[in-house]
Fold:
Amino acid sequence: MSQRYLPGQPHQLPRHNQSMALYQPEHFLLSVKGGVATVSLNRPERKNPLSFDSYAELRDFFRALPYAPDIHAVVITGEGGNFCSGGDVHEIIGPLTQLDMPGLLAFTRMTGDLVKAMRACPQPIIAAIDGVCAGAGAILAMASDLRYGTERSKTYFLFNKVGLAGCDMGACALLPRIIGQGRASELLFTGRGLGALEAERWGFYNRVCEAGSLLADAQAIAAQLVAGPTFANGITKKMLQQEWNMGVDEAIEAEAQAQAICMATNDFHRAYHAFVAKQTPIFEGD
Structure:
């Protein structure tokens, strides 16, 4: 079994504050254009399952994003008409049955670290979900900030179906925040599929798109975010994440401090001067 997923063995990424445009990952496709990074899971013949190494490389990629000056939004998608079928049965599920408890815990902590990295990076993440979105794929969608689907996409939190608890990679914490406790409980207890229209009605999907325009639609909203005040967007993502652990008084004080920081940025001043001049502000992220 590959051991590259273990802590202390990061994949080769650009150093802090260097461009990601030339980075060539081994286990997914990456393109960077206009401040938008598009991550494409690329095993279409198997509906884009994850392996030990692809988990680890995705974790390391998202960990590096706070130091990537050329990326201000991320789109994550899958090749070949499907998003992600979850952990590869032959490359992950089978080998896991042979591990001892320390090995199992190293694996589950590593997969959880991927979600932590997605939530901690300042860039908004948009999931463009077509076809199958199952298991760990559903978690990748859940860990994103916005989710666009198609009428043929279907999401499955399958852990119950393979004898595991629904509390995988933060699902019991994050999924109720998105769709509510009762609906999250139903999906995690039963493992049933969540169709696109129901997912939109429940708030899991922000939008249901035509399959042919899904990626373009996701990239368009990413470009819109990139054209906005990207430093402030990062603050918004941070506060959306951490205020769940605060009381109301703490949250109001934290927001006062965060907003005061944003008021000291050049983008805030640009917006004011543009308003006075009856122009559209051009934000530069500083």
Notes: DSSP finds eleven helices and nine strands in the chain. Residues 1-10 have pLDDT under 50 and may be disordered. The two ends are 45 Å apart (CA to CA).
